Amino acid sequence: MSARRGETANTAGGPIEDLVGIGFGPANLALAIAIEDHNRRNPGSAIHAGFLERQESFGWHRGMLLEGATMQVSFLKDLVTMRDPSSRFSFLRYLQDRGRLADFINQKTFFPTRVEFHDYFEWCAAEFASAVDYGRTAVTVRAEAGDGPVESVEVVSRSVADPADETVRRTRNLSLGTGLTPRLPEGVRLGERVWHNRDLLFRAGELTVRPHRRFVVVGAGQSAAESAEYLHRTFPDAEVCAVFSRYGYSPADDSPFANRIFDPAAVDHYFDAPEDVKQGLLSYHANTNYSVVDGELIEQLYRTTYQEKVRGHERLRILNTTRLTAVEDIPGGARAVVRSLTSGETFTLDCDAVVLATGYRPADPRELLGDLAAECLTDEHGRLRVDRDHRVMTTDRVRVGIYVQGSTEHTHGITSSLLSTLAIRSGEICDSLLLRRTERDVLAGRDAATV
C-alpha cells in the first residue's frame, strides 16, 4: 500500500506520496481499507499512502472497553460493508477468521460488545502494519519552498519516545483523522484524581489508596452512565454519585425513522440544506446521539437504586439537577463542589476520584496546518468550509488535497464523528483522490503540450 516503515523517514527532496494520513483510528483505518480495495482491483492506478499515529499500537477508546458494554451501532456499519459488502475486511469475515461466525449468529443481536469490535479493528489494522508509523506525533504541516502553487506539503513528525527524532514526509494529499479532544467543565483541570472517562480503566486499575470510599461521575450521556455502573460494580465498598443537570438519564432515540439521520443519503441532504435547516436537523435529532443513554442501561441503573433503597444502604446516588462548579485537591483524593440548580444550595463531596464523562469536542485541523491555515476558507462563523468530498476548501494557490475526518458536523451532519458512515466516507475520499490525480495529469499534459 505504501513505503515500508524504514523508508518513510524522508528528508526534504525525498519521494512524494499520494497521501499521508495523520492519526490512525477507525476513520483513517477505513480509508486505508478503501485504498487497499481499490489498489487490489486496479493495480495500474494504485494510490500510495502512509499514516502517522502517536500511539504505539492501534487503539480506540481503550479506557472505555468496559466488560459487557455493547456497541451503539449495528455490526453492519463496520469499516466496509456499507461501501462494499464483498470486502475481505468486513466484520463477518473477521468472525469467520476467528472461528466465531455461527456463535455470533446464535446470539441474535446486531450489537457486538465494544471489546469484540475493538478486536475487529485491531484485526483490520494488522494488515497495514507496514503502512503506519506508530509512536510518532505530527508536529506541523508546511508548504514546500517556493512562491508558486502548493502542489505538495511536508509533514513533520517526531517520535513520542525520542522528541529529537524528527522526520519529514512529502505528500500531495492529507487526511486529518486526529480524533476528538476531551471537553471539560469550565475551570476544571485533569489531575491525579480528576479523570476524563476516556482513561477510566487505566486510572481505576491503578487506584490502590481509597480513603474516601466514594466516586463522583459527572455527565448524563452513555459514557457517564457506563462509568457509574462500572465503578459501582467494581468497587462494592464505595459510594458512586452521578452528577448531572438533567432530572434523569434520557433514553437514546434509536427508532427506525430517527435512525435515518445516520444513513449515507442523509449526508447529501444535510450538505445541500440551508443553514437554518442544518441547525434544525441537529436540534431535532440531538437525542439520537448527544447526552442520551441506552434504555436497558437506564432501567438497570434505576433497578439498582431502588433495590438499594429497599435494603436501606444506597451506594448509587443520582444527584440530578445539580452541576459541578469546582474540584479541589485533598489528601488521597479530590473534593467536588456541587450546586443544586433548583435550590441553589452548594455542597461538597470528598471522593477518591472525579470522573468527567463530559464528552468531546472536535479538534481544529488548522492547528496542524501552520501557515497553510491562512489559505483555508471559512464561513461567516469562522468554521472551515469543507466540500462534499470532505476536502477543505482553500485558496487557488493550494492544490494539495486536505481531507478532514470528523470536525465537519456543520457541513456534513451528525455522523461526522461517528462510525455510522465511515465505510461510505472512506470510499468518497478515495474516489476524490483518484479524480484529482486524473485532473492533475490532464493539466500536466496540457502544460507539456504548450511548451
Distance between the termini: 35 Å
Stretches with pLDDT under 50, minimum 5 residues: 2-11
Determine the fraction of residues in helical runs and give it as a percent range. Answer: 25-40%
Order of helices and strands: EEHEHHHEEEEEEEHEHEHHHEEEEEEEHH
Strand order of the largest sheet: 4-3-2-8-19
Please name the defining characteristics of this protein.
451 residues, alpha/beta, five-stranded parallel sheet, 11 helices
Characterization of this structure:
The protein is of the alpha/beta class and 451 residues long. 29% of the residues lie in helices and 21% in strands. The chain contains 11 helices and 19 strands. The protein has helices spanning 26-41, 91-98, 101-106, 114-125, 200-205, 222-234, 264-272, 275-284, 295-311, 409-412, 422-450, and strands at 16-17, 19-22, 49-53, 132-134, 136-143, 153-159, 166-171, 173-176, 180-182, 194-196, 214-218, 239-243, 316-319, 322-330, 333-340, 346-351, 353-356, 360-362, 401-404. The strands form 5 sheets. A 5-stranded parallel sheet has the order 4-3-2-8-19, covered by helices on one side. Strands 10-17-11-12-13 form a 5-stranded parallel sheet. A hairpin with a 2-residue loop joins β14 (322-330) and β15. α1 (26-41) packs across α11 (422-450). The two termini are 35 Å apart. The model is unreliable at 2-11 (pLDDT under 50).
